[in-house]
Amino acid sequence: MRIGTIIKEYRSTHKLSMEKFAELAGKSKGYISMLEKGENPNTKKPISPSLETLQNIASAMNMDFDILVSQLDDNQLISNSTTLSAYSDFLTQQTTDKIENIQDISHRIRELRLANNLEQTEVADYLGYKSDTTVSKWENGKNLPTGAKLAKLAALFNTTTDYILHGKDITPTASPDLLTQQITDKVVQLTPDNKKIVLRTSEELLESQKANGSIYRQKNEEETKKNEVSEEIVSLYQVEVVSETAAACGFNYGFGYDDTDRENIEVDEQPPRHDIATKVSGDSMQPDYQAGDILYLVDKGLTTYNGDLAVIAYGDRSYFKKIYTENGRLRLVSLNDKYEDIILDFPPAEDTHIKIYAVVGVYRGG
């Protein structure tokens, strides 16, 4: 399994946002997003996390490092484009305690199965496996369940994933953030006298922070962001997005919109060339498009359509649909079957404006 898949399944199981998981792992949200997508949006090359990064991710999951590694594909790339299998010497040096921990997990899986009067074949069938081979490997310590399979296994045994992995329920706690860890690493190298200076300075800053309240905190946060060090540099792009109301008014092609109709949004993927951008609203184009997705639009000036994805500004309404031209009218078709087709006159009456924009790209929110 790829590291991005493991992270995504863990977040889904534990109902963690990408931002919260990034905080637990001491990484940026943009970097976690790239891990889950499996590639750098700028270079389109696979992401290669370092061993240190994998250790941070394991810590964020309250999981031993070797357990996480055991779930990864052998061809999982790590830093310098090397596969994980090339680090066999490193992996074989894991401590006896960790090896025993894997056996503890295998033993708990077997005990839970027997306590619930289940055969290995019944567990395998519940999890969607054709045979009991995988379950047998779990109980023999040759492999371990993870992600969605681990969650389903816990549900079947009427327990928690934390109990299966650790023998007790654990409430995830936040790891020190990157900046705090950097400060700690420096302080431990100081002489006792210099440590006292740091302590006094910290106490003075804390008192000043309390005295100045939120104004000081805001200033301090701004300075922190300026000096923040990240393992990966993630390029962000500004996209001006117009509202659905502006879309209904025909955007800026003679119908106009003001500053209240638009906002600037940062995205981590380079947008294609486009005339205008807007957000998806509603569920008529699910499952392919979700509310909040950003659509990049181009005015191609076409008059004939055959299933093209488009945003249509028609009168005082706007639609995101598949569009067809049929005998002096437009047929607008949703991807969601619960919505009926919409029929519009084409060309419309003289007092009704129309503008059709082709969809040339989409940015899906994290």
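^ that was protein a. below is b, sequence first then the tokens
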Amino acid sequence: MKNVISIIIPVYNQEKYLAETLNSVLNQSCSNWECILVNDGSADNSVSVINQYLAKDNRFSFINSENKGVSHARNLALKQVKGDFILFLDGDDIIHTEKLQMAISNFEQNTDLSIVFNTTNYFQDTIENVLFDIKLDTELLNFNGILLYWGEKITIPIHSAIIKKTLLEGIEFNCELTAQEDWLVWLRLFQKKPKVFILDEVLSYYRKHNTSRTQTVSLKEDHFKALQIFENYIDLEDYKLLLLHQVKRYYNKSYDSIYKLNAIKESKTYRAAFFLKKIAVKFKLLGVIKFVTAKYFKDAK
């Protein structure tokens, strides 16, 4: 069977959302897919949900793993894919019923294509509750744009793309990173100067909730770790350019913070509070105020 899409889903403690994700796969209008589910050491009932779908449809398959992270889980599945195209999907996100078909139609019409992207809705609770759209800027969808402006002007939801398997040859997810791992993968993919197409339609949905990785992982820590790792994958001149841009970026952020702090200090509210603090210190009331305030907030809880 030609033009099979291999869908890779790492699963870690996602029993609450997993059925909705798998239903979005099962309901695809395109039937040429396989879905590899990798249990990454879940401690909840995720495996029970997986087993229900394994029994429903033999296009689902299962890999059981110790908890080694999303990158390791994706790499395990990449070794077993049988399809011609790859879709990475997290166990709490959703895809539109026409996503696979629309991508395949474009790949069939233009065999030079390596990636087909689409617009993604960032939502909370239900897909009707859209927080904002994530549209890709064609001007930044290249190696330099991703290298310099990732997380600033461009972010690519990984399930917004369907990728030709041949483009992924020699590329794995870096297991040292618990976040930002997709940044490095996109850089390595765009080093190959792939031909891409962007569908101007919402075909993927990215869920926001308190337990998502982007809410719980220290992105700043992994951001700097990624900068160290990148030295092994990009040439020296590009690496220097990246570091220089990062210095400018953080300098500008620091300058903006200082400017805002100075603006606060010049405000009437700040001056009034500072004046009252001086009076409280003069009359030895500061300790009493701190005690009363602490007790109030403790009681309020």
